[in-house]
Every structure is written in C-alpha cells, then in structure tokens.
Amino acid sequence: MGNFDGILSGLQLALSIEGILFVLLGVMAGTFIGMMPGLGPISAIAIMIPLTYSMDPTIALVLMAGVYYGAVFGGSTSSILLNAPGIAGTVATSFDGYPMAQKGQAGKALAIAAIASFTGGTVSVVLLMLFAPLLSSVAIVFGPPEYFALMILGLTAISSLSDGSTVKALIAAVVGIMAVTIGIDSQTGTARFTFNNPNLLEGIDFLVVALGLFALAEICNLIINRKDKIKGNENIGSLKLSKSDYKEMAGPMTRQSFLGFILGVLPGAGATIASFIGYITEKKIAKNPEEWGKGAVKGIAAPETANNAATSGAFVPLLSLGIPGSGTTAVLLGALLVLDVQPGPLLITDRPELFWGVIISMYVGNIFLLVLNLPLIPYIAKVLAIPRPLLISLVIMFSMIGVYSISFNTFDLYMLLAFGVLGYFMRLFSFPAAPLILAFILGGMMENSFRQSMTIANNDLSIFFTRPIAVSLLGVALLAFVVPLWQAVRSRRKSKMSS
Amino acid sequence: MLKAPHRKVSLVLMAIAAFYLYLAFQLPSFMNSIIDSDTLPKVLGVLLIVLSLILFFMPDNETPEQKEKRNIPKSDAFMLIGTFLLILVYIFFLEILGFILVSMLFIFICSLFLGYKKHVTNAIVAVLFPVSLYLIFTQLLGISLPSGILPI
Amino acid sequence: MKYIKLAAFGLISAVTLSACGSGSEESSGEGGGDWEPEQSIEMVAPSGAGGGWDTTARMAAEGFETEGILDEGMGVVNKEGGGGSVGWSYIQGKSGNPHHLFVASPPLLLIPLNGQSDVGYEDFTPLANMISDYGAFAVRDDAEWEDLNELFEDMKDDPEGITVIGESSPGSMDHMQFVKIAAAAGVDPKSVKYVSAQDGSTMTNLLNGNADVYSTGVTETIEQVRAGEIRVLGITAEERMSGDVIEDFPTAVEQGIDATFVNWRGFFGPPDMTEAQVAFYEEKFQELNDSEFWADTREKYGWEEAYMNSEEYSDFLEEESASMQELLDDVGLYNQE
C-alpha cells in the first residue's frame, strides 16, 4: 500500500510541468553532450551539478538522470558516423554501425541505434520498477571472485571478435592487457612501466586507446581513399526500417534489455561491459556471424540496447543501497549529497516521491529521446556529406579536443597519435583491434579482482570453486571456450571426409 | 624465410615482449602477497613470446586482398606522413598558441594539404568550427580550453 | 578545534563588514600586503571531476565569487593523474608565478613518501588550511566486535583472518589511517591485511562479507549506519563530532587508543612566492573561511572547520610528514629515492 502511494506521488511529480520540462532539458543536454567528442555521462553530470544547487532534489535528480541516459543515447552518433567512439559504452556500436554508414545507410544505422536505445532504456525502467528492491541483493553478492569469473567469461569473446586468425586476435588481446598494466598498480602502489614519467602514473585513458585505434586508424584509411569521394558521401540512405529489420532486431533487443540491465546492476560492470557482452552473445547465437562487422542490423541493436539498459540498471544499487556502482553514479551520488538526499536502503521509505518520481521520469525521458532524435537523424547524418579532406581535418581536431578535455594534458595527445599509428599498422597486418580494446577494458579489472580474491582468501585458489556464482560463470566461460573448438574440429573432419 | 611479413611482425613482437619482460623483472616486490604486481606482467610477457612463435611458424594465410592493403603508393604514404607531422605540430602548439588559433590553422592547412581546393569554404569552416566549439566548451559546458595568445 | 570555531564566529561579522566596506580600488591596502593578482587565478584540482579535491576547489572558487572576496576571477582546472602528482608537477613548473594555486590533503604527504611522486609538500608554498575530515572504521552490524579494542585483539591473534578494505591504494589514506590507529593499539602494522578497491565496490564488499572492516571517511558511513546495516567501531577524530548519527560514533581516543588521523584540506601555491603574495592569499582565505557561504558549505558536506595560516600550516605539515614517514616505514612502504 505504501508503495502504491509512493508511486502515485512520484507520478504526480514526474508528470508535473516542472518535471516534464526538466526531463526534457536533461535529455536534450545529455544527447548534445554525449555527441561531443570525449564528453561522456560523467562530464555531462558534473557540468550539470552547479545548476542543481538550488533545485528541488527530485527535480534535480530527474534532470541529472536525464542527462545521464541522454548522454549514453547520444554517444553512439560519433561511433556510427565517424568510427570515433566518444565514450567507452559505444565502442561495440562502431563495429557494425560504422560499416553500415559507409555502405550509404547512415540513416538506417542511426535509426536502429535510436530504437534499440529506446527499447533498452524503457524495458529496463520497467525492470527497475519491479525489481529494484529485490535486485539490490544481487548487486551485493558479487565480490572479487565473482568479478574475476565474469571478466574471464568476457575475455573468452576474444576469438569471436577476430575475423580470421585467432592467434592474431590473441596477440592483440595480450597487448591490450599489457597496455593496461602501465601505471600505478592499485594493489601495491608500485609504478609499473611508467619510465618515471608522471603522465603515465594514472595509466592510459580508455579514450586515448579507443580514439587512436578506431578513429585515427580510420583516418589513415580515409586519407588513402580520399580521391574516391573528394566530394563526400551525399547519400545517407533511408531512415525507414523494413519489417524484416524489425524482426531481426526483436530478438537481440529483448534479450539484451534483460542482460544489459543485470550487468548494469552489478557495481563496477556498467554500460561498457554490457555493450561488449551484448554484442558478443548475440554474435555467438546469430545465424550469420560472418556478416557481423560488416554492417549487421543486430550488431548495432545488441550493444545499443545493452548499454542503455545497463544505465537504468546502475540506478538499482545507487537508489536502493546508496552504493555507486560506477564512476558516473559516484558523481551522481556526490551531487545528491549536496542536495541533502542520502540514497540508501531507507530512501524508498523516507522519500518515496523522489524514488518513484525519478523512475517514472525515465519513461518520459526515453520517449522524448526517441521522438526528438528520429527527426534529427537526417541532419546529423549530413556530417558524412562533408568533403573528405575537410572531414578528415575536423575529425582529427575533434579527437584531439575530446582527449584533451579529459586530462588537459598534451602528453595524452601524443599517446593518442601513437595509438593511431599502432591501429593503422594493425590494420595493415590484419590484426583485429576489437580484442585489444576488449582486453584493455576487462584486463585491469580481471587482474585486480584476482589479486583481491587472493588476498581475501590468503592465497587459496579454492575461493573460485567454492562459490556458486563464481564457479558457474567459470563453467560458462569454459563452455564458451571449448564448444567452438569442438565445432571447429568437427567441421574440419567433415570437410576432410567429403574431400 | 624472413620475407613473409608475418614473420617480421612476429620478430618485432618478440622484441617488444622481451623488453616488457625485462622491465617486469625490474619491478620491486611487495612482501606480503604471493600474487605481486609483477606476476601478471611476467605471464603476459611469456604469453606474447609463445604467441609470436606460433605466428612465426604458422603458414601465411592472408588473403590477397589483405596483402594488397600494404601496397601503399608513394603519394599516399607522403600524405599519411604529412598529416602525421601536421598533427604533431598541432599538439605542440596547442597550449602555446591556444585552441582557437591552432585549430584554425590546422583545419585550413590540413584540408588544403589533402587536396581541398575551395579556399573560401575552407576558410569559413576553419574559422567557424573552432570558435563555436570553443564557445560551447568554455561558456556552455564550463570546460576551459587553452586560450593561448588571443586576448579572450 | 572547537575554540577556533568560536573565535571565527566572533570574527565573521567584523570581517564581512570590513570586506563590504573596503572599496575595490584599495582592497589590499589594510592587510599589510602590497601585492595583488594581475590576472585571473587558476585553481588546480589534481584529480578528476567529482572527488574531494575537486569539490573543495570548486566550492572555494564559488565562495570567492559569491562573497566578492577576489577582484580577479578564479577558474578551476582539473589536472588528473598519478594520485595528484601530475597536478603537482604542473604547479611546480609555475615556480614564481603566484596565479596558480592547488588544493591538497594528506596524499600530498603520503604519495611522495611512497616514492610515487618526485615533488612533495616542501616544494610548495602552503597558504592556508581550511577544513578537516576524519576517518571511520566500520563493520557489518552482525560482526562479533563491539569496539576497536576487541577488533584489534583478534587482529593480534589472527591477522590473516581479518580483511580491511579501503578505496585508496596501499600506503595512501584509507590504509594509513587504519594502520596508524591499529599500531597505537599494539597491532603489528605489517600484518594488517589490506585490500584496495578503487571501483566503488568497497561498501558492497563489506556488506557481502568479502571484507570485515571498511576504512573510509565518516560521511560515507552515515546512511548504512542509519539503515542498521553497519556499525562504526571508531573514528579518528580527537573528540566526538557533532551532527545527527555522527555524534554516536566513538573516537579511538575515548577507547583508550591514543592516536588520531586528520584528513586536512587546504590550499598551496607554487614554489618561491614572496611574503606579500602569501599574505594576500592568507587574508583572502581567512575571509572565505569566515564567510557565511563557507559555513554553509562546511555544513553541507559535513566538514569541520580547521583554519590555519601559512606559518601554522607549515609547522603542522612538517609534523604530519614526519609521523607519516615513520608509519610508512613500519609498514614497509616508505620509499627513499
């Protein structure tokens, strides 16, 4: 009964003129900031904080939440159009989004991303409403051993991210983990591979690697092919999706709404890992995995659904436990403290109107995002009509400023350039970049959670095999590793027999 | 025998792995943990050597299409290196001359260098983009970019 | 700390009055300094957006503006990296240019002592300390320990059985504040089993039993204490703090453990500042400290007032640094380079 009253008062707040106005403002600002190079949800929220000082806490949270999922929503644009992922959560979107846009279907790619984002966002809000209190206990059972198992599961995807040689994919992954070992080791405080350079102590920023390997390496390609299209690509294709497109998207969107949401709930996992795992799981079960990476509809729908679903998921531990599960929600938590709101187990009883008001505003916000963004797609996609030489200069400048606005340090720009060169050479010698970035994202967490587990268990490895969740995740990882191997052996035998 | 490109790559990778391993063995150890900060790096170094060896002895299975990618005409290579140098200059002068000025010059010169002949459009874009981006970042988003020598 | 507060309270009206009274053309006249900034001041937060340093820097900049204390503007810039050392080397490079300040706290002492930074507090000009914060040690509500002494007794018997978790890396704040109190209670500093979790999972790991003790700031514990999930066994303050919930947290001192740990926060300038420049900033920070805006800010974030002028600050830092060095040496993390 209490819950029902709470939902009602939340409804009232979310649907008040003020509530609607600020969720609109939030999602618009969020989309815009998300499209900016290098600016992701964290900076988007940080930018909004001063605005909220004198606001009603619920409205302030409605605004900041809107900025948050708006930024995730908008982040896919540069991945698709320019192969320049502005935030970590949209790297996987570029795998198929960019190729599709290059085929002259930029409009379609953006439309798929928008619809998938909307679905992921909306379904996950339903889940958030139904299961927030229940799921908070799930968020808590995940400790270092479970995270280690999850990271291992994620890493088994490396082979499925390669388009050819598995050895090359593995090499790329090892180099990715090597890159993440640079910097201060969090468990001992030892500086590793820093060459006494203070700029390397914090490690290499994700964006440096992503923009280097993807955007700058792609620039090199564009430079070589600049003569083909010195006038640019006028054709953005139709926005309209066919019935079969929708049919194709339905499966991944349903599955990834749930999976992404659950991964978002886990503290520390978040949108990035959700989008990768979303991409990989869908590729594994797809009938036509060979078309992935060349502009597959599902390849855009899966990660975009997952990262938006994860964003709502991240609100579960924040609102129901007061535990920030990611950097973004930590900033959000800080902003709430200033407003005298203490998220935690008591929030839902102390401030039901705030708890439910924010959740309900998320429905409204997601609808706004879809309605506002779809008509804008043709204009945004016009970016591709810019003549190649000009586009190249602009993308370079955008990438530079994206990285610079994170660290305000030109050293990172030189690193960006170095990763661009590395990315280009990897292309020349047919080494896939996706495993490198995946390993870079998962590797650090894998090492950390392994060593944390070892310290907790006093160096007893059995900690991984006595916990049900950890052991089942490791089991799935083993299957994910063995099954394709077995299939490969079997198909080779078959082809031998037939020849 | 060394002519196959994947063998050359494999040798380069082994050199990197050896250097990385050398550094890993220099890492100080911290007394009360068995899995120390140098454990993973050592594993990675060895792993990379093993993988490079496999790569070395593998048959060359690149498609002709993949090989063709490495055939870069001299003029294109010149363009790549030129753009690379322009970026270096851009980074070097970013904090000295300021974002607006250096970006204007970069966009105009880089586009020109890559063969863009509409000088007026080029100049307009080169002025408009950096200025509006600067205003958005500093005024709207509260993120300060280097103002440099311009009296802003 | 209490008496400083009282004294400051008395001063507020006087100073704000004089601040309003002095016109802009001679605002530096009476303070004894004959230096004034010639350009806008850059305030560096050596961390990313949203953390403690960033918040302090931004609130200070806002305070200077809303209270009209500085004629020239103040802009906050984030220089993230190396636990602060990137920002520190940046300011060190501004030697002699007093328009670049930064905000600091105990890591400025700890990180150089760990050998992770070549520059330390003695390379800078301390201007003023503003606030202090304290550490808290929390356990699950159903934990077997009723107070710090019981915990430390168990730790002496079986150090391997008790996992302490904190946000910062070993040798930095969360670790050292625990070690300092534990060592004073007779626990071998080297035997403390400390796990660092920098991904925001510290509280989760306390609640789900992967860790037994959570070493953190006082404010971080309040909500879970209110919800009855955790208990705070002790805080590192000299005497009890005021405020709802917080006032019930026992100090280590009252449990017979003679040790405290202050998470101070203040402002520094580059090396080689003149006396007049230091005096100028000292006065401005004092003014900020006494302002209503800053009082509200302190209350909002649960900070305690702890103003120190440049000289007091230097003495304090010297003492703190020596005691930290000793402690790090005991843990085996002191790194002379």
UniProtKB/TrEMBL annotation, chain A:
Keyword presence, DNA repair: no
Residue ranges of every copy of the DUF112 domain listed in the record: 20-438
Pfam families: TctA (PF01970)
Source superkingdom: Bacteria
Keyword field: Membrane, Transmembrane, Transmembrane helix
Transmembrane helix found in the keyword field: yes
Membrane-spanning segments: 12-33, 110-132, 138-158, 165-184, 204-224, 258-280, 354-377, 389-407, 413-443, 464-489
Protein name: Putative tricarboxylic transport membrane protein
Native organism: Sinobaca qinghaiensis
Taxonomic path: Bacteria, Bacillati, Bacillota, Bacilli, Bacillales
TrEMBL record, chain B:
Residues covered by the DUF1468 domain: 9-146
Record field: transmembrane: 9-27, 39-57, 77-93, 99-116, 123-145
This protein's record includes keyword Transmembrane: yes
Pfam families recorded: TctB (PF07331)
InterPro entries, alphabetized: DUF1468
Keywords, comma-separated and alphabetical: Membrane, Transmembrane, Transmembrane helix
Protein name from the UniProt record: Putative tricarboxylic transport membrane protein
Record organism: Sinobaca qinghaiensis
Classification lineage: Bacteria, Bacillati, Bacillota, Bacilli, Bacillales
From TrEMBL, chain C:
Key words, A-Z: Signal
Annotated organism of origin: Sinobaca qinghaiensis
Listed InterPro entries: BUG (IPR005064), Bug_dom1 (IPR042100)
Pfam family, one: TctC
UniProt cross-references to PANTHER family, sorted A to Z: TRICARBOXYLATE-BINDING PROTEIN, UPF0065 PROTEIN YFLP
Family to which this protein belongs: Belongs to the UPF0065 (bug) family.
Protein name per UniProt: Putative tricarboxylic transport membrane protein
Signal sequence residues: 1-21
Source species taxonomy: Bacteria, Bacillati, Bacillota, Bacilli, Bacillales
Keyword Nucleus: no
Domain of life: Bacteria
SUPFAM superfamilies (alphabetical): Periplasmic binding protein-like II
